[in-house]
Amino acid sequence: MKKILLIVVISFLTGTGSGQEKNNLPEFLVHSKALVFGKTSKLSEIIKSINLMSDKFLDQNDTRALSDMRNEYSKISGIDILSPDSLSRAGIDVSRSAGFAYFNEDSIKEGMMVIIPVSGVVKFSDTFVEIIKRMNADNKEFNISSSDHRGFRIVRLDKDLFITNIRDYFTIASSPEIVKRAIDLSFDPSGTLSNDALYRDYLSKRKESGDIEIFARKEVFAPVFESFTSGDDSPDKNDDGKDKGKKARSHLDSIEYAAAGISLGDKGVRIRTASSLNRDHPVSRMIMGIARTELSPRSLSMGKTLFYLFFSYNLEYINTMCEKPSSFCGFYKSTVKKLEMDSGIHIIRDYMPTYGGFINLFIRNINPQTGKGEFTVYVPMSHKATASDIWHRMKGKLQNKYAKTGGFGEGLIGQAVTFWYKEGTEKIYVIFDKRGIYSGNSQELLKNAMESREMGVENRPDRIKEMMDRDTFFLVYLNNDSAVTGLLKSQGSGNPGVSRAADSVKDIYIKLGRKDNFIIIDAELNLAEKKKLK
């Protein structure tokens, strides 16, 4: 199995994707029972990206580790896995995709399969056998044998490595059953992954491909779901008496499949994950009910900030859902109660009918010692009269609460009337205009928010705007400037991993979107270029 894992790594560095015939793809040799299927993009692009990442972003230790791995494999195989010319000379076709599949069935023991595109089938087969021989030079029990299946020769290398050539692909598997089934699919493709309904659904919803694409059935996540509800130090039952394992399996049924894509670029790494939700499952209905789309064009464009948040949610749905008890609703109800006590706003009577559907949060000038910075929260309202009414209600409540202790005051921010109250030693200002209500601790930032344009009418180039579309219901941006870096390091308590991450990441974008029952998480990590040695 360890040898298979090594070949998996190699194969993902030797795959391609674009410009291929639809009937000549790795998934045509993978049975629809595969729990996981992965496919690479074009070899020239992958190697270019990996070398670029190494040159621009990896520190000396990571660069050395990559070089050592490359040299070690080159000594064994005679192939430089980060050189397209070297791969081509070995017989690998650098113009098509490589694939990887994972199986775990009753009829087939847990196993893997790697599919490598080749231009010279015999040449690469001989090269591969020689590589495995060298890797087992000290293994006296190593042996090679062969068998035949429907006219295809299957070579067994030691105990758990089986190879054959199918079409223009060199296939490697951990069991003979997996190889035989791939051969059978070359005669009758009806059972291939390419013809699977869920996989085809994924392809129809995928917006773009990455350097590595992965499709996974829900069953592969069963251990993860079970870990959420069980543990060595936890009882077998929940407080309500329900079996935890049964609950975990029920939650697993909320998804149909999941997928991920990884792309490497000249700025850093982009990771896209997605899940197709089971429309009939209560958890799925909750997620789809809460996630509100179509409102991102109304979010504010604030220019340069250290932190930007857009979150659009269906408040009416949450309130209706929380009429029944649940762990999530406990937090919601306590928040609602605190809001009413602090500001006098009744969320159902006063707030919900006039709420604009989302919130914006902006932060800048973070103090690395305290972790605090200047912030503004923007809550859109349906029109100015409703914003004014809520503002005056809040003013009356907070004035009664803080005026006697000198913790309340009034004034102007620009031309807008504001009141402020003190939380500890910090003044919190509240203002309103025809778009909604703004609250924060910085008069300048509040003024900027009121003067800013909405995303839907903003014309200047902005990555946040580029990432947002009408399917977006959540987007967060973090600019890792020196203050944020210092804060992360201080929170990491000297952890070298946290320190390296803080120094290497320039900024982060994370977007959540929903298109019907398809939930997408899109993350971009722009990396800082490594310092050049003088």
Strand content: 25-35%
Mean pLDDT, to the nearest integer, reads: 84
Distance between the termini: 44 Å
Number of helices in the DSSP assignment: 18
Q: What spatial form do the alpha-carbon principal axes imply? A: elongated
Major beta-sheet overview: 20 strands, antiparallel
**SS elements, strand count:** 20
Quaternary organization: single chain
Q: Residue share in helices?
A: 25-40%
* Low-confidence sequence ranges: 1-22, 231-242
Secondary-structure class = alpha+beta
What does the radius of gyration come to?
29 Å
Output the keywords.
534 residues, alpha+beta, 18 helices, 20 strands, 36% helix, 26% strand
Provide a quick synopsis of the model.
Helices cover 36% and strands 26% of the residues.
Characterization of this structure:
It is a single chain. The protein has 534 residues and is of the alpha+beta class. Helix content is 36%, strand content 26%. It has 18 helices and 20 strands. The protein has helices at 2-12, 43-56, 60-77, 84-89, 121-135, 176-187, 197-205, 222-229, 244-252, 282-290, 315-321, 327-343, 347-351, 384-402, 443-451, 463-467, 482-491, 496-504, and strands at residues 36-40, 99-103, 111-117, 144-149, 152-157, 161-166, 169-173, 212-217, 255-264, 268-277, 307-312, 358-364, 374-380, 408-413, 416-423, 426-432, 436-440, 472-479, 505-515, 518-527. It has a 20-stranded antiparallel beta sheet, sandwiched between helices. Strand 16 (426-432) and strand 17 (436-440) form a beta hairpin. The longest helix has 19 residues, at 384-402. It is elongated. The two termini are 44 Å apart. Residues 1-22 and 231-242 have low confidence and may be disordered.
